[in-house]
Amino acid sequence: MSQESEFANLVRKWYDPLYRFAYSLCGSREDALDLTQNAFLKWARKGHLLKKRHRVKTWLFTVLYREFLDQARRRKKFPNLELKEEILPDSGTGQARERVDSRVAVAALARLEEDFRAPLALFYFEHHSYAEIAEVLDIPIGTVMSRIRRGKDRLRRHLQGSRENSLGEVVPFPREQSQS
Amino acid sequence: MNNEEARQILSAYRPGGGDAGDPYIREALEQARRDPELGRWFEEQRRFDAEMAQALRDIPVPAEGRTNTLNAARLEARGSKRFPAWLSGLAAALVLLAGIGVIYWAGLHDRSAARVVENTGMDGFIEMASSAMPFSYRADSFADLHTWLQQRGSPVPETIPETLAGAGALGCTVFQEPDGSEISLLCLLRDGEAVHLFVMRADTPLLATFPRGEWQAREGWNAFAWGEQDRRYLLMSRAPREEMEKWIDEA
Predict the structure, then answer these.
(1) What pTM was computed for the model?
(2) Which positions 87-106 of B are in contact with A (Cβ < 8 Å)?
(3) Domain region containing B18
(4) Which of A22, A157, B15, B132 is the most buried (most CB within 10 A)?
């Protein structure tokens, strides 16, 4: 397999998971695109130095996470960032106000301190075991477990709060029903 | 293992069940089966986790992301194979970018903000071409780039050859000269080759040593400037000059 097609396969396999991880960290489409592209370009430049080729997944996520931390430091927005309302399109169906959709989930994650956000995002994307999460984030396994648990508790509180706040909102009438 | 420890471990049990073979998790799962209270807690946890996991899996991924990444890697590989000197230029530009990054990130906080360019003449254009990425704005068509630049109030091309307007696009970046005036850089893709189109005002100091209607070549780059009224264009590429001449025949 040529180097180019190997790279294309890598992009095909890992682009979506990496982008979603980046997006859940930074909450911005453009920044997530940059973070994801930079991780792959770094692989294109330095991937050949990785001796254990089967660890490419962990390598890519680690590179992306470190780049995110650097970027966050540069912006001085660390540790919290605000989610812009226009970032994810509203589902607009008005259905299942009790159900968590991606917009609500990312907004709730964005309200967490970065210490909790990254392990939780990696946990929920399910591509990494807790041991691998520890490796990506460069923290002990016990800390990963503790942060996942405490992070979930905070996440629930944020989600509960946003549900209570949305009780008085007008729910848009589902378009499909109105057309029929 | 007490229930508190079991809760901690089960918290790290992935919703899809991918960790069932892990010895710690297996032991904690066994304890949840034996202890009804822990079992109820675990069930509720699993429901919440499944919901969150599904929600995050639903994050939409922009369709152009993969294509742009593959194109960017191809361009980079081509540059490094054919023009090794260019890489050192890029490295220098990156160092420069890191320096001005403080201003860029801390002062402006806006992805669409212009980046400062300090060199003049051909050096200035090479500096800009080498530091075009990450783009201020990405799009795969010339029309989209034009719209974005126009909305931003940056220089936009008014009359350019069809061969360029119809080319594929990667993105654009806006630069700023020391006097505050802006230069738009549109990165196009023609026959697999990156083509940089600079758009600027006619009296920009950057063009002082680059007269209209002349070709210049340096470090593997070929460049040609032309213009109309108060607008100037500069086309720059690593493609052969004969090829580029065809592109701008209509200009």
Answers:
(1) 0.57
(2) 101-102, 105-106
(3) 3-57
(4) A22
